[in-house]
Amino acid sequence: MSLTKELKLEVENHPILRTKWLVDRRKSLSKEDLCLWLSQEYFVSVDFVNWFLWTASLTNNVDAKILLVHNIWEELGEGDASRSHVMVLTRFLREIGIAESELKILHHTQKYLNDMKMLTNSNIYSALGALGPANEYLLKLEYGQMYESYLRLKAEEKLPNAFFFEVNLEADESHSAELFKLIEAICDSPQKIEQVKEGNRKALDARLQFYEGLELVGKL
Questions:
Q1: How far apart are alpha carbons 62 and 67 in whole angstroms?
Q2: Cβ contacts of 129 within 8 Å, gap of 6 or more
């Protein structure tokens, strides 16, 4: 089995995709649920570029730096700030009726961001495990599910076109494929492979905290 396949299976079989919050919203998503999820994804989006910047600083491998910086460039709208992913999300939130000034980060979201900062400042292999499978590939699965739920909700309520989901799903597909290729290319020893797997596992566990926080809000 290839390393890429192993990492993908680790993501697909992790409890994160079976969290109560996600499973329940697969069946029924309310506008309040959507606003809560997006409000916390905003803070993730703000930090996301930094994770790639920190990871790029951990290696002297030029090919790795090029790929990571290219991903950063695309996340930042290829030089057009209005097309950067955080600005696309901000515009989406505004069209739904949420002002950026109203956003407040949850404690569990902050814990997730802190863990990701630590992972993407550790070593290049753990950082790539945290960014590739446990973020770009995972987000494709998460956003794919939320996108379907959003389309069902949009059929019932007045909501903007799903441009935020479409932009992210397109980017996640290409970015995850590129990162898997990079991981396969530079992980040429058992130690490096284990570090990638460890980074993947730790980032998945960190992301689990994000959904635990959303679930707690629903119980208040």
A1: 9
A2: 7, 183, 195, 196, 197, 198, 199, 200, 201, 203
DSSP labels for 168-206? HHHHHHHHHHHHHHHHHHH--SHHHHHHHHHHHHHHHHH
Extract the tokens encoding 129: 């495990």
Burial environment of residue 186 by CB neighbours within 10 A (0 to 12, 13 to 18, 19 or more): middle
Q: Where do the domains of the chain lie, and which CATH numbers do they carry?
A: 3-219 (1.20.910.10)
Q: CA separation (Å) from 106 to 83, 156, 178, 193, 215?
A: 26, 29, 32, 33, 11
User: What is the rounded distance in angstroms from the CA atom of residue 137 to the CA atom of residue 120?
Assistant: 16
What pLDDT, in 10s, does the model give residues 149-184? 999 999 999 999 988 888 877 765 678 889 999 999
Question: Which residues, other chains included, contact 142 with Cβ-Cβ below 8 Å and sequence gap of 6+?
Answer: 17, 22
**Entry pTM:** 0.94
Flag whether pLDDT at 66 surpasses 70.
Answer: yes
Instruction: Determine the Cα angle at 102 with ends 74 and 79, to 5°.
Output: 15
